[in-house]
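Tokens for chain A. Residues wanted.
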């Protein structure tokens, strides 16, 4: 079985709809066909300041949501990044094969650091993509299921893996991005020119999966649509309606052309009312399942402990090979 690896940050508490449609939904599907490793990336989270009690709880909330979304610990390996020390260890090695200029070109870093200012930007935020390189290479992943905003980090991973392999001999599998075109970028409901995100979206533009279903329905109903009346997919001229159609189609397993036919001659309001109900039907059981996992933290922690053990077996082997290739003297 080919292998996939991906990660999600625990910082926000609730996942948003972009996280789910862009990434987590694919994770669930891929566990059937792939040897799948999925993690909650708490090491990445501390690149910006975190409250310790909140980080601990948010890490459990993230894991609970992944299980609620359909990850099955019998079918995939689900773990917390800091439970596998090899991530930090390989990240150091990757720091030493990455060019400073190369790291400086990462657009997510440039955007985030520009917003924060140089003195509030940590060196960890700068090397964040290099930790991600280590995450991926440790598991010899063939593919990495993510949204469009992560593409550059996967390209960096390929470049660095190739460089290392060229210099020290075949060591790492070159990973391919696994990005589904339709859901690669889910847009803000109030401003469909920007992606839905915790940091950039206004509260009304962002759907948190753990929010009150009623509040979620309201956000869908007040989503910005476009001038004109026709319900048609046209990302350029009708970005608002197109975003709603993408969400609707994905959550119901309908095709966009079928939806266009279904809503022919109908008003935007009809589409939004129906999609609001689709969302409520999706988030209500999702919240309940998440809460059920959170109500039993011992079982949840046991799932994560078992996941970490499975992950570590793979990660330790890659790290040992890496150290050997580099010429580190064995410890024994
Ligand atoms: P994170 O936590 O920001 O986001 C998790 C996943 O959600 C996707 N995503 C979106 N997809 C579509 N539309 C959107 N509006 C949207 N917003 C977010 C992201 O692309 C991501 O797939 N650096 C990563 C975490 C990470 C990782 C890794 C991923 C750490 N190590 C190794 C893959 C492999 C991140 O911050 O994701």
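Reply:
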């Amino acid at each position: 079985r080919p292998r996939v690896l991906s990660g999600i940050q625990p910082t926000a508490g609730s996942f948003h709809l972009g996280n789910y449609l862009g990434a987590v939904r694919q994770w669930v599907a891929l566990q059937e066909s792939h040897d799948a490793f999925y993690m909650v990336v708490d090491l990445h989270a501390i690149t910006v300041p975190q409250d310790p009690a909140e980080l601990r709880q948010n890490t459990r909330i993230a894991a609970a949501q992944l299980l609620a979304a359909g990850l099955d610990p019998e079918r995939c390996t689900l773990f917390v990044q800091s439970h596998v020390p090899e991530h930090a260890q390989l990240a150091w090695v990757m720091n030493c094969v990455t060019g400073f200029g190369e790291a400086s070109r990462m657009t997510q870093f440039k955007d985030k650091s520009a917003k924060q200012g140089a003195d509030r930007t940590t060196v960890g935020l700068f090397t964040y993509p290099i930790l991600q390189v280590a995450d991926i290479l440790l598991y010899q992943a063939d593919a990495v299921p993510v949204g469009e905003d992560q593409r550059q980090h996967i390209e960096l991973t390929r470049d660095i893996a190739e460089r290392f392999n060229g210099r020290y001999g075949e060591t790492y599998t070159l990973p391919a991005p696994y990005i589904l075109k339709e859901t690669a970028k889910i847009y803000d409901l109030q401003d469909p020119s920007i992606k839905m995100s915790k940091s950039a979206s206004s509260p009304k533009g962002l759907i948190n999966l753990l929010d009150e279903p009623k509040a979620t329905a309201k956000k869908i109903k007040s989503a910005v649509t476009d001038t004109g009346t026709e319900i048609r997919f046209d990302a350029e001229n009708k970005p608002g309606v197109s975003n709603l159609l993408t969400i609707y189609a994905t959550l119901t397993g309908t095709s966009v052309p079928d939806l266009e036919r279904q809503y022919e001659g109908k008003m935007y309001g009809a589409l939004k009312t129906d999609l609001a109900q689709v969302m409520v039907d999706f988030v209500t059981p999702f919240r309940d399942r998440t809460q059920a996992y959170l109500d039993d933290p011992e079982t949840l922690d046991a799932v994560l402990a078992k996941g970490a053990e499975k992950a570590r077996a793979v990660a330790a082997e890659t790290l040992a090979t890496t150290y050997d290739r580099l010429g580190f003297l064995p410890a024994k």
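Residues 248 and 275 are 6 Å apart (CA to CA). Residues 5-9, 18-19, 22-23, 41, 44, 132, 135-136, 144, 146-147, 149-150, 185-186, 195-197 surround tryptophanyl-5'AMP (CB under 6 Å).
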